[in-house]
Amino acid sequence: MSFNSIAEYEASRNALILADRALRADHKKGQLSELEALADKVVRDVRAAEAASIWSQDHEGIPHPFPGMEFLTGRSIIVQTKLFEILGKMPKGGLLHAHLDATVNVSFLLKTAMRYPAIHVRASTALNSTTIGSVLPQFLPLPQELRTSGEIALTDENYTPNTWVPLAKARETFDPKLGGPEGFDRWITASLTINPTEAYVTHNTVNKIWEKFVSTFVVNTPLVRYEPIHREYVREFILSSIADGISYVEPRINFLQKDIPFIAADAHTRIDHREVVKSFDEVVNNVKEELKEQGREDEFIGAKIIYSTIRSITPEGLEWYLQDCIALKKEFPHLIAGFDLVGPENVLKPLKYYIEPLLKFREMQKEAGVEIPFIFHAAETLGDGTEADMNLYDAILLGTKRIGHGFALVKHPKLIEICKERGIAIEVCPISNEILRLTSSMHMHPLPVLLNQGVTVALCSDDPSVFGSMGLTFDYFQVLAASEVTGLIQLGEMAKDSIKFSSMDPEEKERALAAWQKRWDIFLEYAATEGQKFLAQSQTTM
Amino acid sequence: MSFNSIAEYEASRNALILADRALRADHKKGQLSELEALADKVVRDVRAAEAASIWSQDHEGIPHPFPGMEFLTGRSIIVQTKLFEILGKMPKGGLLHAHLDATVNVSFLLKTAMRYPAIHVRASTALNSTTIGSVLPQFLPLPQELRTSGEIALTDENYTPNTWVPLAKARETFDPKLGGPEGFDRWITASLTINPTEAYVTHNTVNKIWEKFVSTFVVNTPLVRYEPIHREYVREFILSSIADGISYVEPRINFLQKDIPFIAADAHTRIDHREVVKSFDEVVNNVKEELKEQGREDEFIGAKIIYSTIRSITPEGLEWYLQDCIALKKEFPHLIAGFDLVGPENVLKPLKYYIEPLLKFREMQKEAGVEIPFIFHAAETLGDGTEADMNLYDAILLGTKRIGHGFALVKHPKLIEICKERGIAIEVCPISNEILRLTSSMHMHPLPVLLNQGVTVALCSDDPSVFGSMGLTFDYFQVLAASEVTGLIQLGEMAKDSIKFSSMDPEEKERALAAWQKRWDIFLEYAATEGQKFLAQSQTTM
Fold first, then answer.
1. Are the C-beta atoms of residues A139 and A219 closer than 8 Å to each other?
2. Is A415 near chain B, with CB under 8 Å?
3. Domain named Adenosine deaminase: which ranges (chains A, B) (predicted)?
């Protein structure tokens, strides 16, 4: 190429940039309104101002911070930023990828559990300053006849290993030398969350961190799946989502009969999947009614469930779950949105292993007169040509409606093409990917590759209670902070897509989109005003 | 999609995988010969066997090793593998991206420097166990009249800060408490290389590690650029490259008149760029002649220089370098291969800053009757829409022949298209990218995205003396170890492309390709035989 003038070069350069970004959702959007352009610009300015101020300062224990840095280390800075405050008010659309058991913050769970005398806790050895770092709490709701008085504290050297102590009592009697009740809370919290040292030092590989990750579920399951707690948990999940600007949720519930059962209020009877879905339905309906009474019905359109089971079962075992899912779909057609197989892809079975029952599923549905799309996890991996990576081929061949994670999708040009043709959206979980060591910071995340190729993306939180990233604001923040290309408009398009590519029915979608648009316009006003105020103030103080 | 049988599904799956990989160099290659297929398979088997053996064992100080792990930590395991031994024998084609001053291992440089009485060293303070970790050596060739006897050791508490000591003397008198002469060597080596703690702990961000990286050049320049040492250095670079199976080199030489001059044997006179190129030419010709005498002329086709200067100069300043480059091209048309601007892209000036002189360059060349392509570094960055990322637009608009690094290229669909259309090869430097913190391990490296999209890639070593990765074997190893898709055939195609996309003239290329193919066939035999022997042995010992 040759250019006759700088102006000619500049024109070619601008045209090339436009062509390169033409597939992005924010570019496809076309002309921005005055307000959109203003809000987008103001937010970019706020981001730049904070990159040069709060992110360039030293913070205790954070040697060299930067926007988009490791979430667990940077979180304390993030929550101080104006950018985070602004994004907190953004209407986020739907949450399309979250594992129900890991959606509510630990302190709520603990406080709730404390109110149920059935809940007991034990440890495999007496806790002291040496053992507390490695011994995990074990919870169980105990039926009346097995409950204990818990005379001996978990921290008492005379504590008999594995003796049950009522939860409230265990907390109350926790040795002051280990921090007393607050020390107890810290012990529990450490077992249910991933801390920076684990993610970035001791467990700094995908398979290592997954060991810790899985252990958080082992600990919390008996609490979360105790029916009375579960109802409160689901309710809190929905209410906190709404508070974060999320107007629809589509959580995955892990159904694994024997290993992770739901237990009834009597702390003895197992309740079946039908009961779980029914109670979920009731909670959702209650929330809807309450919101309606408050004139806030547009803030929450509803919830559906992606029926999931774990990639460790046998193909024969899977058939039972497929049948179970169909039965639930028949009874709760408005609730069952899809079917998925979950668990650590690098170590459990690939989709290919289940190909017989999965191919049969369509036939089974036909017979039953229902339709249940697959919404598969696939390629939540760093592998290149490993079974986990290859799951993408099977997910797509089996007609997956969306792809959970699809972290390795960027490596597959043909599959990207197919995703675009068929409208397969990718459920991208930025913070989850980073903490589970697929990427070291947001800057290494392949999200921009997908966005620039025009692949539809919905940002999701995955397991926010384990990551300390409840809601979607943190994930939106990380994405916005780590890119100079992405701005508010792109975030808005992703939020809209999280509605369009959800499992809502057409009427629900229409209502959700209209409600979102209304809130979006208000949000843009707010973002522009609030951002400008902040920028004016920053200039004065500089 | 619906399938009538598992067989039908399998057929569709295979077709989809083929379609997805159709653009890869190894797939475009077509039918493999029997030997190629065998060698590829055997090497895959060796890789798998070692992933399950040496990479799955505990190693001292390496808590959880894995193939493709952080190079500086994993190096001691890599060199024990059969895979590494096999790749060491592979004919690698050309080395298209390396900074001359960082191509020869530190111990050679130090031993060579020791033979020159002009070389002196000093420190800003006496060295003891406290200061040795932070004080850098400073080297300088001193003219006869300024040389010292170096009576007082650098480690003597009476050492006067910044007093020059002859290099050999400084080593000899180094305090035994600090390790004596070997302790001296360790001190020097630490200043010229990046260690795992720096890369993965204390300097674990791109900008931080670049500080250390740049400091290694500050330390080694007065050694490397002392003319008599420089000749030996260039010779050793070429000889060690040949020993590693590299048959052509195209290093970048940084020309920056004032700040990093070349000094003549008298340790006083600055020598001009013409002299530098002339001496390079002589060394190359000497090596060629020697090889010819030994009947080994096919092992080394030649060398060219990419004239580089640093992105910190002014646009006006750049004009001088462009003229200088043209003058050199006129005198050494067979040696000057291209022009580049180097240095940390995230902090120095973008290409856009230099657009006026860069646009003028074509006209200047025409007038002079020469042709010098740009071969630009671009997007060696994690930025998304930052100036460093945007350098890609300018590099491509300015007609760059290849792209150095192009780490962020995967984000740019239009630019990928253009690279393919115009045959712009990407100089990918896997180990450099990892140590300089663009990627945490090879598994997060975007290389597979480029390969699967059919972008031409040449693997390069960048600054191997700083990384301890001399030659290209280590880079090939990391790429092969971290992927299940990539095998020997893909490596061979990249090696061939490093010849095809080099700056050799057509006759040289033809000769290089023919020579490469001959050696490749021998290598395949060796790899198959050696690999099979290893696999047989492993089975016996298991």
1. yes
2. yes
3. 200-512
Q: Are A114 and A168 in contact (CB under 8 A)?
A: yes
Band of pLDDT at residue A541, cut at 50, 70 and 90: low
Radius of gyration of chain A (CA): 24
Strand partners, A339: A307, A374
Q: Which helix (H) or strand (E) holds A392?
A: helix A387-397
B496: number of Cβ within 10 Å: 21
**Residues A398-452: tens digit of each pLDDT:** 999 999 999 999 999 999 999 999 999 999 999 999 999 999 999 999 999 999 9
- Amino acid identity at B433: N
Which ipTM did the prediction report?
0.95
Q: Report helix, strand or coil for B168.
A: helix
Give me the pLDDT at residue B1, please.
63
> A55-113: per-residue pLDDT in tens?
999 899 898 899 999 999 999 999 999 999 999 999 999 999 999 999 999 999 999 99
The single residue listed with the structure tokens 């060991």 is A211
pLDDT classification of A260: cutoffs 50, 70, 90: confident
Residue in B12, B64, B384 to test binding to A, most A beta-carbons within 10 Å: B384
Extract the tokens encoding A385. 């040509």
Q: Identify from B210, B387, B390, B443 which residue to disrupt to test chain A contact, counting A C-beta atoms within 10 A and taking the largest count.
A: B443
- The nearest CA of chain B is from the CA of A426 a distance in Å of 17
For chain B, say whether A32 makes contact (Cβ under 8 Å): no
How many Å apart are CA B422 and CA B417, to the nearest integer? 9
Longest dimension (CA), chain B: 91
pLDDT reading at A257 higher than 80? no
With a CB cutoff of 8 Å and minimum separation 6, the contacts of A31 are none
Q: Is the minimum CB–CB distance between B350 and chain A shorter than 8 Å?
A: no
Percent of chain B surpassing pLDDT 70: 99
pLDDT for residue B222: 96
- Least Cα distance to B93 among B242, B246, B237, B240 occurs for B246
* B453–A412 C-beta distance less than 8 A: no
Return the HEC string of B317-370: HHHHHHHHHHHHHHHCCCCEEEEEEECCCCCCCCHHHHHHHHHHHHHHHHHHCC
CB proximity B362 to A under 8 Å: yes
Residues 6+ apart with CB under 8 A from A108: A236
Point out the residue among A2, A16, A443 whose CB comes nearest to the CB of B382.
A443
Confidence label for A1 from pLDDT (cuts 50, 70 and 90): low
Q: What is the DSSP string of A304-366?
A: -EEEEEETTS-HHHHHHHHHHHHHHHHH-TTTEEEEEEES-TTTS--GGGGHHHHHHHHHHHH
Question: Among all chains, which residue has been given the structure tokens 């932070």?
Answer: B134
**CA separation (Å) from B245 to A264, A280, B181, B306?**
70, 65, 33, 21
Of A1, A443, A482, the C-alpha closest to B395 is A1
pLDDT tens, A202-224?
A: 998 999 999 999 999 999 999 99
Q: Where are the alpha helices (DSSP H) in A198-314?
A: 206-224, 227-243, 273-293
DSSP class of residue A535 equals H
Contact call for residues B448 and B482 (beta carbons, < 8 A): no
Which domains are present in chain B?
88-106+214-434+492-520 (3.20.20.140), 117-192 (no CATH)
What is the pLDDT at residue A75? 97
The pairing of beta strand A246-249 with beta strand A302-303: parallel
- What is the length of chain B? 542
Q: Tokens at residue A98, please?
A: 């979250």
Residue A206's closest CA among B450, B64, B511?
B64
Q: For A205, which residue in chain B has the nearest alpha carbon?
A: B64
